[in-house]
Structure formats: C-alpha cells, structure tokens
TrEMBL record:
GO terms for molecular function: oxidoreductase activity, acting on NAD(P)H, oxygen as acceptor; oxidoreductase activity, acting on the CH-OH group of donors, NAD or NADP as acceptor. It comes from Suillus placidus. Transmembrane segments: none annotated. It holds the Pfam family adh_short_C2. The keyword tRNA processing does not apply. InterPro entries: NAD(P)-bd_dom_sf (IPR036291), Sc_DH/Rdtase_CS (IPR020904), SDR_fam (IPR002347). The keyword Oxidoreductase applies. This is Sorbose reductase sou1. Keywords: NADP, Oxidoreductase. Coiled coil: none annotated. Belongs to the short-chain dehydrogenases/reductases (SDR) family.
Length: 303
C-alpha cells in the first residue's frame, strides 16, 4: 500500500528520485528518433518520417485535422479509428490530399468503438504488428453530451459522456502505450482535453468534468511512462468550429456569439489552426515536453 506524502520536502525528494531514475536509464538521449537528413533539412525535428500513428475520432473534426498534420509531416501511416462503419466525405477528401503529397504516406480507416477496451487493445496490437512499430497516438474521440442544468443530470447522462471522453481516451492511450513499450520505441501520446477542463462552462457538467479528468490523466500517465521513453501531454483547444460545436449552435445559437466575443480574437478557432501544435507534440521538437497541458484558445482563458 502506498504511503501518503506528508510534506512538500518529501514530495520534492520523491520527484528527485524519479528524475534520477529516468536520467540513469538514458531517457534524455534515447527518446529521440533518428530521422533521415533530407527530412531534417526541410522540417528539422518536426519531421515524422516513417512513423506510425493512430488517431481516434479521426473521421472528422479535430481528429481528422490531426491525421492530416501527422501525414503532412511525413508519417508512414496514420490509422483513423472512429465509430461510423464507413468514413465520411471529409475523410475521403483528406485521403486523396495525402496521396497527392507523394511518398509512401497514407491514411487508413478502421471502424471501432473506443468504449470497447478489449477490441481496441487487439486492434491496435494488430496495427503495430503489421507496421512493426507504434509511435504516435492522438486520442481525439469525444462527445459533448446533453446540455442542461446540473440539477437535472441523470446517471445515464453522465455515463454516456464519461464512457467516451474518459474511458475511451484512456483505453486509446493505453492500447498505444502497450505497443510502444512492446517495440521498445519512444512514443508520443496526445490526449484531447479542452479549456472546459480548466474553466467552468455552464450547462455541460459531464463534458467539463470529463475534460478535467483527461488533463490529470495525461499528467499521471506521463509520470508513469517517462522511463519507457513515452511522452504524454494533453491539448486543450478553445472553441473551434467542428461538427460538435455546429450541433451545439444549432440547438443554442446564442453560444456562437458569446464564445466568439469572449476570445481576444473575437472569433472561433478553425480546426486547421491546431495542426502546428499537433505536429510539435508528436515530434522530436517537443522531446522535453511531457505531463503538460497545452492551451490553444485565442486568449479565452487569459482574461
């Protein structure tokens, strides 16, 4: 049984011992991938040459933007995992765009429910076995759930959101991390959180609390997986124009104006504006970044 940490000084000692262990195991040097010189000349440490990634929620929205970002940076294969039996028009258009880039990079689509832990573990293992590696995971599958006063939520309302936004995110990260560890390769895991996990937003309590949990999940997993050369970070976008927010605006149009006006930039974000940070987090350019929550919100939370 773990003993409680009784003081700040004992916590500092624990942290120093963890850092010392990580240093002795050579994480700082071994965590860097080796990329061909031709890629380093063009993208430098941002290059993702020959790497293999999974992106949950990759059929549309931010998940699809993540897949495009990873492909553009040179990934060999990006597997987009999502619930629909067949990918949508946006995904098919993205696949054609990737094909036009040239090279061996490609997008693949896999139908799966991130709530099904056993099947997810098996599917990701099969992907890693086929490709001979697993480098990157973007856990972007999520739902907003019903919007109503906190006094009216039912157990079913909570479970619906937590099953995808909390359990599904963890199952995805866990499945990828197991394969990274199996192949003894450094890896990067990006968990999609939200500014809703750091500041309070009315009428969407399950969503808020699920995203707060994702931020803490990234910290805990980062702490445990650092010695395996696996980095884990969370990404908290502000209000971005996605199919999810479009559905919210259809039900409550006033939210679009309110959320836009509360940003320094007086607008919502575009999905493609997250490609740069996705590439950075996935690549060696962020090799010293783990356990962090990166906020990209147009200044919304800086007030």
């Amino acid at each position: 049984m773990l003993k409680p940490i009784s003081s700040r000084s004992s916590l500092a000692i624990l942290r120093r011992s963890q850092i010392s262990s990580i240093y002795k195991n050579g994480v700082t040097s071994a965590s860097l991938h080796s990329t061909p010189a031709i890629q380093r000349e063009s993208l430098g440490d941002f290059a993702l040459t020959d790497r293999v990634a999974i992106v949950t929620g990759g059929n549309r929205g931010i998940g699809l933007e993540a897949a495009l970002a990873l492909s553009t940076a040179g990934s060999r294969t990006v597997y987009c995992l999502d619930l629909p039996e067949k990918p949508g028009e946006d995904w098919n258009a993205a696949r054609q765009s990737v094909a036009k880039l040239g090279g061996a990079g490609r997008l693949e689509y896999v139908t799966i429910d991130v709530r099904d832990q056993k099947r997810l573990l098996k599917t990701v293992e099969e992907i890693a076995t086929k490709e001979g590696r697993m480098d990157i995971c973007v856990a972007a599958a999520g739902i907003s759930g019903a919007a109503r006063p906190c006094l009216e939520y039912t157990e079913e309302d909570l479970e619906e959101v937590y099953a995808v936004n909390l359990k599904g995110v963890f199952f995805s990260a866990q499945a990828a991390a197991r394969q990274m560890d199996r192949f003894r390769m450094p890896g990067s895991i990006i968990l999609l959180a939200s500014i809703a996990g750091s500041v309070a937003l009315k009428a969407i309590l399950p969503y808020n609390t699920s995203k707060a949990a994702v931020i803490q999940m990234a910290r805990v997993m980062a702490c445990e997986l650092a010695q395996k050369n696996i980095r884990v970070n969370s990404l908290s976008p502000g209000f971005v124009e996605t199919p999810m927010t479009t559905a919210i605006f259809s039900a409550q149009p006033e939210f679009q104006t309110i959320w836009s006006e509360q940003s320094f930039m007086n607008r919502l974000g575009k999905p493609h504006e997250l490609r740069g940070i996705m590439t950075w987090l996935a690549s060696d350019a962020s090799s010293f970044c783990t356990g962090s929550n990166i906020v990209v919100d147009g200044g919304y939370t800086a007030w």
